[in-house]
Amino acid sequence: MEHIENRTFDEIKVGDSARLVRTLKLEDIQLFAAMSGDINPAHLDPEYAKSSMFQEVIAHGMWGGALISTVLGTQLPGPGTIYIDQTLHFSRPVTIGDTITVTVTVTGKFEHHHHVTVECQCVNQNGLVVISGTAEVMAPTEKVRRERMALPEVRVTDKTSQYRRLIAMAEEPAPIPMAVVHPCDRESLRGAIEAAKAKLIVPILVGPQAKIHAVARAEDIDLSAYKIVDAAHSHAAANLAVAMAREGAVEALMKGSLHTDELLAEVVATDTGLRTARRVSHVFIMDVPTYPRMLLITDAAININPGLEEKVDIVQNAIDLAHVLHISEPKVAILSAVEMVTSKLRSTLEAAALCKMADRGQITGGVLDGPLAFDNAVSIVAAKTKGIKSAVAGRADILLVPDLEAGNMIAKQLEYLADAQAAGIVLGASVPIVLTSRADTVQTRLASCAVALLLAHHRRK
């Protein structure tokens, strides 16, 4: 509709009605909280909401009340309407993904002051009444027809909320000794020193001493407080750093300016590496401004095309990490292109098998569901629209991707198109390993070191 038009008092008849349909999104709750200042954790804190009587985040009651006001002010009677009185009864909560139909029906008219009474009702997609009540308004007496104004786009985001939470979790434990392997460029050396200043790590710089000092001089970095272990080249640095971890001299590794394969080859070496009973895998820890919780994506960096047995280790590594990050019962969405199990897509068969393995105790500590398409894994609205009933759908803490290509694309898209912050950690070895990229920000490096710190202290216990 290009115009908005009212109904005057004389035009209105008893029995006239108008309606509005709206689907509740997480952004609606956040925007209402920002506008009203109502930060009740029942509306904003998923962990708290799980312990409430409704067991999930619910909308502010007056969100539905505002929809009633919208119908009265824009449709019936419309522009020129003045609110006089409103009573509301809240029958049941409105949750994310619920589609609410608001209907107002005229029940009476009063000529002497042009008041109109209306019955108000909000019904969800299941036909259940969520809000009911009555309103009294002063109807306009003059016709109003105006061009409909376009609403501005509004987005409520906090792009570092999970990052701040992660750094706060790492404030109490003492910094850990970390071997920084071949820090021979600006990014890797400065990242290690910044993490040291943040009291996350005690860096031991392993690499060609002359090169490290040259970078420090060029970047005006004071290395007097830090130990340097000389190694002839990157391969020797990787070998030496892994040996230090194996002997307990350091509790974590950080990749510097060498290829990932060069470092991991030493880590997984049969006789001299840092192997455990688990397969080595990588997890991206994402702080996505448009998602209400920390999001773990695995594996997007190491295992190229893992099969079922490899995915068991990959998902268990991620679940164990989630526990360290204080996610007590992480929800794992096993991703595919579809939600139905089909022999045409190997990822759907493996998703079904992984879920059954979790049922039988072969995977522990989390709630698994799959196959799930990406939209249904992260959007309650999408899941409800498709009729998916799942404890995981729309609430995923962990995304288990079908292969490295899919995972890498998801992580990079979130980072560059959704303004997400990312940390990364390698699990499954006897010490945590921070993998860095030249494009990583200081925040990313600090967050990755914070995760390594938390993992190292957890291993001590």
Written account of the structure:
The protein is of the alpha/beta class and 461 residues long. It has three domains: 3-147, Thiol Ester Dehydrase, Chain A; 159-275, Rossmann fold, CATH 3.40.50.10950; 279-428, Isopropylmalate Dehydrogenase (3-Layer(aba) Sandwich), CATH 3.40.718. It is 35% helix and 23% strand. It is built from 15 helices and 18 strands. The strands form four sheets. Strands 15-14-16-13-12-17 form a six-stranded mixed sheet, sandwiched between helices. Strands 2-4-5-6-3 form a five-stranded antiparallel sheet, covered by helices on one side. The chain has a five-stranded parallel sheet with strand order 10-9-8-11-18, sandwiched between helices. A hairpin with a 4-residue loop joins strand 4 (99-110) and strand 5. It is elongated. The chain starts with a strand and ends with a helix.
CATH fold name of the largest domain, please?
Isopropylmalate Dehydrogenase
For this structure, what is the CATH class of the largest domain? Alpha Beta
Outline type:
elongated
Would you tell me the overall average pLDDT? 93
Low-confidence stretches: none
The major β-sheet equals: 6 strands, mixed
Distance between the termini: 64 Å
What share of residues is helical? Answer: 25-40%
Total E-strand runs: 18
**So, CATH architecture of the largest domain?**
3-Layer(aba) Sandwich
Number of helices: 15
Can you tell me the CATH superfamily of the largest domain? Isopropylmalate Dehydrogenase
Biggest sheet strand order reads 15-14-16-13-12-17
Number of domains: 3
Radius of gyration: 28 Å
